[in-house]
Amino acid sequence: MPTPPFDTPVAAPPKTWKIAVLPGDGIGLEVTREAVKVLQALAARRPEISFEFAEHAVGAEVFRLTGNPLPDPVFEACRSADAILLGAMGLPNIRWPDGRELTPQIDLRERLDLYCGLRPIRLLDPADSPLKNGSARPIDLLIVRENTEGLFSSRQTRFDPGAASVSDQMRITRHGSERIFHAAFAQARQRRRKVTLVDKANVLPSMVFFRQVFQQVARQYPDLDTECVYVDAAALYLVQHPERFDVLVTENMFGDILSDLAAGLVGGMGMAPSADIGDRAAVFQPAHGTAPDIAGRGIANPVAAILSAAMMLDWLGSPETRQGAERIRQAVTRVLAQPQNRTPDLGGAISTSQMGDLIVSQL
Ligand code: ATP
To answer: 319 C-alpha vs ligand 1 centroid, how far in Å?
Structure first.
């Protein structure tokens, strides 16, 4: 998964990888437990891989108790860790006074400058796709989401509840665009060598600019196929012809929306891992939120969290951790090859921890 510029410059990997674990709220607690269980089982079987996990409380519950969803000592611990494994944060009934939900995971992305959101979407078993003829459509695409600007730029802006209108800004910078496009092209070189820009250049000036920068950067990658698709058409094509896509690159909000849509094609949010990567730090977390509707019942699907842990091993970048990532992915595929091995979101009846145990048993 990782490619330059994301390969960590690890001359001699540390003996023990320091992992900051932030389970967060809701099902974040439940799925992170399984991801850590799988990593521990991997380390137990592979003495050349060793982890030191430091768990920290963050999120809406911590905000309720302390007034800060991401306490400073936790942020410092994250900054000094080799990687950060995160569950999910935020609860609908705990909000800032202006009504917005707490999103410390977005604060973390911005403060660590984790500009590149990688969201791989792979259909592991055709039975889990809601599309007709699932088996005829290999779905294997990667959404590269710009994480630090776009339509999320105004998210901290205060507004007057009595105002007659409120506006949000779509902020696109040349620097932010160039670095995310380079990241997308680098990913495509490790995949099927096609990059689709998703924009709204037929309407928004910021998106005309985004497309211009894309086309300029694309000239440095003559070996790759490129195309530009409007975001509304991209939503249509993702449902009708997901197999036509390899790497899709887009701004923050479009990436947020399309990654949920794409997750739906391969079984839902419980199947969608993600990584938020910067030049010096990275957070690995499932693409889903805290799922308050099912939290606390032990039925959340931990596969997205476990596959996110595999992405973390890829990013850590030693031959051993990369092999470990591959072993986890193979274990997940083997478990899902049995139709009965499904949590309720996939139509099955096994629990979160049973799914974790099955994956451990296949390592
Ligand atoms: P956020 O905005 O924080 O990403 P969200 O409001 O999009 O969160 P999610 O928490 O991702 O919502 O949940 C969306 C739906 O997907 C819910 O019905 C939830 O139960 C389901 N879901 C999410 N994650 C899982 C999971 N791991 N296993 C099973 N179902 C899940």
So the answer is: 33
How far, in Å, is the centroid of ligand 1 from the Cα of 291? 4
Is position 71 within any domain?
A: yes
The structural domain count of the chain equals 2
103 lines ligand 1 (CB under 6 A): no
Q: What is the residue whose two structure tokens read 């031959």?
A: 319
- For residues 123 and 261, membership in a common domain is answered with yes
Q: Are residues 249 and 299 in the same domain?
A: no
69 lines ligand 1 (CB under 6 A): no
DSSP helix/strand/coil, 120: strand
Best residue for ligand 1 mutational test, from 145, 261, 288 (most atoms within 8 Å of Cβ): 288
Atom of ligand 1 nearest to the CA of 301: 28
Which pLDDT score, from 0 to 100, does residue 52 have? 96
Please indicate, yes or no, if residue 141 is contained in any of the structural domains: yes
pTM, two decimal places: 0.93
Which pLDDT does position 47 carry in this prediction?
Answer: 87
Mean pLDDT by 10 residues, the chain (363 residues): 51 80 96 98 93 93 85 92 95 79 82 96 92 77 97 85 91 98 97 98 97 98 98 96 96 97 96 96 96 96 98 95 97 96 97 98 96
Interatomic CA distance for residues 143 and 161, integer angstroms: 35
CA distance 197 to 220: 15
Q: Give me the pLDDT at residue 1, please.
A: 47
Q: Which pLDDT does position 97 carry in this prediction? A: 76
- How many whole angstroms from 29 Cα to the centroid of ligand 1? 13
Q: How far is the CA of 179 from the centre of ligand 1 (A)?
A: 29
Same structural domain for residues 238 and 125? yes
Confirm or reject: Cβ of 31 under 6 Å from ligand 1.
yes
For ligand 1, is residue 294 a contact (CB within 6 Å)? yes
SS3 305: helix
**CA–CA gap between residue 288 and residue 269 (Å, rounded):** 5
CA–centroid distance, 288 to ligand 1, in Å, is: 5
- Residue with the nearest Cα to atom 15 of ligand 1? 291
Q: Is the CB of residue 95 less than 8 Å from the CB of residue 59?
A: no
Give the span between the Cα atoms of 128 and 342, in whole angstroms: 10
Structure tokens at 349: 């009846």
